[in-house]
Amino acid sequence: MKRIYIGIVLGLIFITLGVVLSYKEGEIQVQRDIKENTELVMEDRVIGDIEGLLIDEEIYLPISFFREYLFQDIEIYKDNKRALIDLTNIEFELETDELTDYVKDNNVQINIPITVKNNKQYLPTKALSRLLKLKIDYNEESQIITIDKYHSDIIVGKIKVDKAKVKLDPSTTSFTISELVDNEEVRVFEEVEEWYKIRTALGYIGFMHKNDLETYEKSTDLDNRLNNIRYDMDKNEKINITWEYVYEKTPDISGEDRIEGLDVVSPTCLA
Q1: Domain-located, residue 247
Q2: What local confidence, expressed as pLDDT, does residue 156 receive?
């Protein structure tokens, strides 16, 4: 009888160990899959099959992505090297209200160079993020691009325990996809019973128990002004202008010294 009892106990121990090991293996595989398959996240959604580019510290996204998720009215010029963005129905600001109204009333289009890689057409996001009221970031550690639409206020969660688990689903038995420590912050999107749906600083989407977070509202600012008021000049004098070559790539000249005697530098896309 005693041997039978010992056999039963040992059997239960082996079964329990098997379940634990199987669970742990499944959890590790889920963590690996999430890291491999999370490349672009739009607010609280992982967008699959979208590959972004990082060129000279600027993020490029496929035109197909912009059309499907953000802005449909993108016209490809006949040379397939430029995209035309109609500003008519977009809210934006230039340096003066007068200039803003002029551009809106005259159906002006922005001409943006297209970058092609692996037969896919990409657009740089720096200018478009202002036009479309977006915040687009790239995390070097996780190599994830995050995109957020503008909201005047967002909810932020701050970890208030030594260690907090981020779960795949809103359940204590769900796989843990990462762990965060005290004072780390996450973006909170919604409540699911006793859980929050969150996005970590690295860009991963998951769920955290409400007991682990202290939430607060954070105001965000939006600067969608495309340019600033330029220095005053005598309009009775001549204006010296030159063209900056912009065709397949927009050069960044923000760090260059001003050229004495030159008043205006205009990109060739506006020629």
Answers
A1: yes
A2: 95
